[in-house]
Hints:
CATH architecture: Alpha-Beta Complex
CATH class: Alpha Beta
Amino acid sequence: MYNNSDFNRWRRHPWHGLHTRADGQPEEGVQVYVEMTPSDVVKYELDKASGFLMVDRPQRTTSSPPALYGFIPRTYCAEEVAKRCEGVDVADGDPLDICVYSERHITRADIVLRARVVGGIQMIDGGEADDKIVAVLEGDNIWGDVYDIADLPAIKTERLQHYFSTYKMIPGKDANIKVDYVYGREEALKVIAAAQLDYENHYGHLHKQAKAKE
């Protein structure tokens, strides 16, 4: 767990301060905080303590994410997520990652959007579960009628698999990453539910403390 577990008083925290789903969203709908866009060749990541978007590292390769890349608020990948990934004992200890396809080019990160979950990619990074949920932008003119990952062109999933299998590559070193297993919406919703439970188990007390101070 992160040492600084206090909520930021001066800026709403997108991980803790937003809900997994907005009011009125169905089960397959989620809110997404966007950290990276398809044009980014620098790895941006939320600073968990402050809630600000920070530079994690410049990418060593020319690869950029083929979709909007961020996380689902109030999720956490720990024991329950690891249980859904055969052959691992731990998860990566971060909010649950999500990739969102949009027909229109969204060129800004540090934004929140609504998306429909269609599936996911089971990623194992260095022996840790690090699932990537796949979704489409809610109301999208091209992808708005997609409800399962099988309805997306296969190349869309293949490009995500290629990106995540190579984005940590360092010349002369082998990347211990597996992205072979692709699953549909039903399994993706179970992974999200597991990540919500992990969040409640590890961070739920913070919300109870905040309400008690109101």
